[in-house]
Automatic annotation (TrEMBL):
Alphabetical UniProt keywords: GTP-binding, Nucleotide-binding
Name recorded for this polypeptide: Mitochondrial Rho GTPase 2
One GO MF term: GTPase activity
Taxonomic superkingdom: Eukaryota
InterPro entries per record: P-loop_NTPase (IPR027417), Small_GTPase (IPR001806), Small_GTPase_Rho (IPR003578)
GO biological process: small GTPase-mediated signal transduction
Keyword Nucleotide-binding: yes
Organism field: Thelohanellus kitauei
Amino acid sequence: MDPNKQYVKILLVGDEGVGKTSIVIALATEEPPLLVPAKAHDLYITGEVTNQTLPALIVDTCSSIDIYLVPEQTIEEIKENIVDSDVICVVFSLKNEKTRERVADYWLPFIEDKYKPVADQVDLTDDIDMFYIHEKYPQVEGYFRVSAIDLSNLVESFQFAQKTVLQPLKPLIDMDTKEVSPAFEKAIKRIFKVIMD
């Protein structure tokens, strides 16, 4: 990570109506949103909120097709945001199976890296199995079930997103094989002078 970095940029992507904007508004106001615009303003939260060393900039994306509310962001604009982001939260609705399927079929291949699935509307449904996403995309480190209505896991999901940037596992563990990386193994041997054969 760039030592001159001022904040961790967290981008929310997902299908229309899954709750991306509601999550941002609920996090900002600590209340369930009553009126939800097509897209939330960028939200800057201090490191104290998420118990991290750097603050976070949370950026919403718009999937709305109602051009009278907000013109839909183009795929190119979303791609530019993806490149500029440190971590991406793919938001899907637990009450809409199609949005969940599109996490693996569309969003994860589209963004390729830097993602964390976030299941929204947890207040409306029972537990869900995310094994199929972990099986197809082993580099996904985890997912969070959140609710903008009962405010569950909102702060925790962004703490985790920041942690993946500030304290990454990728240099230490090959997420595909779940084995210690050669560079990390070499560092351990050098630091502790332990033979790990």
